[in-house]
Each structure stands twice: as C-alpha cells, then as structure tokens.
Amino acid sequence: MTAKIKKVVLAYSGGLDTSVILPWIKENYDCEVVAFAADLGQGAGELKGIEAKARRSGASRCIVRDLRRTFIEDYCWPLLRSGAVYEQRYLLGTSIARPLIAAEQVKVAHEVGADAVAHGATGKGNDQVRFELTFMALDPALTIISPWKDKRFVAEIDSREAAIDYATARGIPVPTTRKSIYSRDRNLWHLSHEGAELETTTEEPRDRMLVLSSPIEKAPAKAEYVSVDFVQGTPVGINGRKLSAVGIVERLNALGGKHGVGQVDLVENRLVGIKSRGVYETPGGTILHEAHKALESICLDRQTLHHKQQMALKHAEMVYDGQWFCLLRESLDAYFDTTQRHVTGSVRVKLYKGNCRPVGIDSPHSQFQSGLASFTMGGDYDETDATGFIKLFGLQMKVAGRVHRQRRGRKRKR
Fold it and tell me: What is the per-residue pLDDT across 21-63, written as a single tens digit (0 to 9) for each?
C-alpha cells in the first residue's frame, strides 16, 4: 500500500495551470502544499503578490527564490558556448530553465521536509519530462505528482476554459481570460507563446501577442549598432563596458526588442511525438548567439568548428529533452569549454527591422590572415602546392571513377 503523502512542494508560477493545481492537490491528497516560485527574470508583474495568492489558493507557505544570476551564468552561458539550437531556430529558452527550477524545488523539498514534489506541466508537453527527469536524477525517493496525467484531474479540468471556470468558482484570480487564452512562459532568456491562433498552421500570429519585442513593421526605420565583448566564449560586456551577466541580457533584450529582433514562429517536434506551433521572442539571446557564432568563425579552426557544430545538435536535443543532469551532458559541456579557450574578442552587430547581422569581428586569437585570404599570390601560401594536394585528396575519387568507367565500358561491349 502506498504511504500517505504528507507534504508536497509545488512548482508554482501563479499562472492558470498551477493556480488550479494547488487547491486540487490539497483537496484530493488531503496534504500540506508548499508553493515554490523561481524568479528567473519573468518580470515583477508576474511575481507581484504571488505569496498572498498562493496562500489564498491553499498553500501553507510560498517560497520565492531569486535565481536570475544562476540561470544566466550556470545555464544560459553554457548553452550559448555550445551553440545549441533546437531544429535550427529555437534557442531553448523554456527548455534550459526547467532543470534549474526543478533542482531548486528538490532543495526546497529537503528544507521543508516534504515527501513529494509536483508540477503543472501537461501530459502532452515536454516540460513534464524535464521536471520529472530532474526529480529522478536528484532525489528518486521523492514522490512525483503530475495532475495533468491523473484521470481524476483531467475528468474535472480537461481544457484551459475549464481551468478558468475552476479557478473562478474558488475565487482564485488568474491572468488568463477567454479573450487572451495564450499560454506563455517567460524568463530572462525568452518568452514563449502557445495556443489561440497558434493551434493551427494557417493563421498568422497577431501583433498583439508580442510582449518583449516590437512588430517588425513598427520597429525603427534607422539601424542601430551594438558591440558584444566575450572572454573564452562568455559575454562580459557591451560596447566596451563590463556588465553583470543579468545586466547584459537585460540590456540586449531591450535593445533587440526595440528592433524586432529574435521573433521565431516555429512548428517543432516535441519529444512525445506531437508537432506543436509556438512563437518565441528571444531578442537578447539572438544577438548573443549571432555574435558568438561570428566570433567563433575567426577563432576556431575548420576541423574544430565543424565537429563542434555536430556536437551542438546532440547538446540541443539533450537540453530540449530534459537530460541536463546526466553524465553525457556534463561531458559535452567540458568539451565545449575546451573549444572556447581562444574565443575572446568583440563583435559589432547591426540591428534593423528584425535583422541581427554581425558586421565587424575582432579578436587577439583571430586565425583570419589578410595576406592568406587575399587574391594576391605569394607569402606563406605557395599556390603550386595545391596541385599535389588535390591529386592526393582526390585519389580515391579518381580510382573509383576509373573503376566505374571500366565497368560501364564492358557493359556497352556486351
């Protein structure tokens, strides 16, 4: 017989899902619920009054932790150094945040003596995997409560509209209405949007959806430039001025958002096998990603750069799939850190009407040599050496071509 659960720590955002899940857990498990909210830079508006709201919804207490610095330095910066991008466009803003939230949630569970943890991720999404894999990795003894996979919960609350009705009946204020039905997730790195017209592939996203950035048509008609400074692949300042990790992202979010940079409308493949459509706003992250990529282009040799791009694909999948706390991900990060030893310098980026284009790169470790790259012959490069190189490099193709030509010749004679 399963032991009765006495205390649960719920990952609590104050949004629609967790607002109804909190009282539901208390009613159905007859246990104490401690709400845990992580400040990842989602904005003061989302966290304002969250403790009072949690208590009003039935929580015995609400613990709020400021994790912004940890989020950027220990999660976003390694992600940036890796170059990981999921399905060529998604900069993994939600994916990279979940392991940190879940890890801190486990810490809180230990602090308050809880025997269970809970989350509000749906049974169709990726977040359920990210939360639960982290729980399993860091404390497999904790019981995991996932209401959206509980038939009792689904029978009572089977849609966002039903969740609104559930909250209304209990006097719980929620930020979602029937007129604004978007499901959003926000942190310092990005803001995601799902639902409403995005549940089709034929409708254009409405401008009203955007929060962090301007619609492209309304962005300034004049370009603006910004320089990003890196040391060993890590951003350290803007325009020659050193800033904190949080300060860098905040500053670039404002600047990129002003010019409509970092808007992505993507139909992606979820881990569970469903295709879903989302709109992502990642203004600062996009500037940093493009600048970092440009700096690598002059600091890394061809072989390292190409191999790193292959490893980045695997890293992106692991982050997306919630496999942050596993040996392979840690090993990949060690590999990426090695590749970044000489990725130091500054990149000047031009922002204009949604475009983010590196237009100047400078590094003390640049492998770009003007003399070698120019059309002028001489210097360290002897063009006659290319003859022997091509002969050796193409020898296997020459042999294969000769063999196939001989076979074709024999067939024609028959």
Answer: 999 999 999 999 999 999 999 987 889 999 999 999 999 999 9
Task: Please say whether the beta carbons of 345 and 300 come within 8 A.
Answer: no
Burial class (CB in 10 A: 0-12, 13-18, 19+), 204: exposed
Give the model's pLDDT for residue 378: 61
Whether 106 contacts 134, CB under 8 Å = yes
Q: Does domain 7-181 have CATH number 1.10.15.40?
A: no
Domain-by-domain residue ranges, the chain? 7-181, 190-300+342-362
Judge contact between 183 and 94, C-beta under 8 A. no
Contacts (Cβ under 8 Å, ≥6 apart) of 135: 102, 105, 106, 117, 142, 144
pLDDT of residue 306: 98
Topology agreement, domain 7-181 and domain 190-300+342-362: no
Strands 116-118 and 143-145: parallel
As annotated, the active-site residues are 17, 98, 127, 183
Report yes or no: 153 and 125 within 8 Å, Cβ to Cβ.
no
If you write DSSP's letter for every residue of 344-389 in order, what string do you get?
-EEEEEEEETTEEEEEEEE-TT----HHHHSS--BTTB-TTHHHHH
Helix (H, G, I), strand (E, B) or coil at 91: coil
- Rounded Cα distance between 47 and 40, Å, is 10
- Residue 139 has a pLDDT of 98
User: What letter would DSSP give residue 270?
Assistant: -
> Phi and psi for 142 in degrees, rounded to 5?
-70, 135
User: What distance in Å separates the CA atoms of residue 168 and residue 153, rounded to the nearest whole number?
Assistant: 17
Q: For residue 296, is pLDDT > 60? A: yes
For 134, the token pair is: 């982290």
Q: Which CATH code is given to the segment(s) 190-300+342-362?
A: 3.90.1260.10
